[in-house]
Design brief:
Blueprint: E1 7-16, E2 21-22, H1 24-33, E3 38-55, E4 65-84, E5 90-100, E6 103-108, E7 113-127, E8 131-135, E9 142-146
Antiparallel strand pairs: 1-7, 2-7, 3-4, 3-7, 4-5, 5-6, 8-9
């Protein structure tokens, strides 16, 4: 386990508009505000896109993602973390549960989802933590490294 203790900084409340692309718009917002680390909460509606819902084979590395399409308006609740990549650019990792007509899908929103009329986001800035998303050769992921790291 890697551990770092930080402090809360600014708190942002955002309303996503119909057609806004997540995670792109939230990463763009973070760059514009100079926010490098933050906790993200999302509730609202998603009208399309896709999520990663597990690897096809749990043993094979790097994993082959299973992509689930989001067809039609879905309710969403998501939680994520913004952290800088190896170049210092804020990148968000968010997992969400999406529901429609009694059916639920869950997964990572990295491939992209599109807001549907109602998207409410709270971002809590995290200060004084040294962390970055660094490439991991075995998994192919950009994994969060907390504490001392060399970019």
């Amino acid at each position: 386990m890697q551990i770092a203790e930080g402090k809360l900084g600014r708190v942002f409340v955002l309303r996503l508009e119909d057609g806004d692309a997540v995670p792109d718009c939230l990463e763009e917002f973070a760059r514009a505000k100079g926010l490098t680390m933050g906790s993200v909460l999302l509730i609202g509606g998603i009208g399309g896109g896709q999520v990663v819902s597990g690897p096809r084979d749990s043993v094979r590395l790097p994993p082959e993602p299973m992509l689930l399409p989001i067809d039609g308006a879905h309710e969403i609740v998501g939680v994520g973390l913004i952290a800088p990549d190896k170049d210092g650019i804020p990148r968000m990792h968010m997992h969400a549960a999406l529901g429609r007509a009694g059916q639920t899908k869950a997964g990572c929103v990295r491939p992209g989802i599109i807001a549907w009329h109602v998207g409410e986001v709270v971002i809590y800035e995290i200060l004084d933590v040294v962390a970055a998303r660094l490439p991991d050769i075995a998994t192919g992921f950009e994994l969060l490294q907390v504490g001392s790291w060399h970019g």
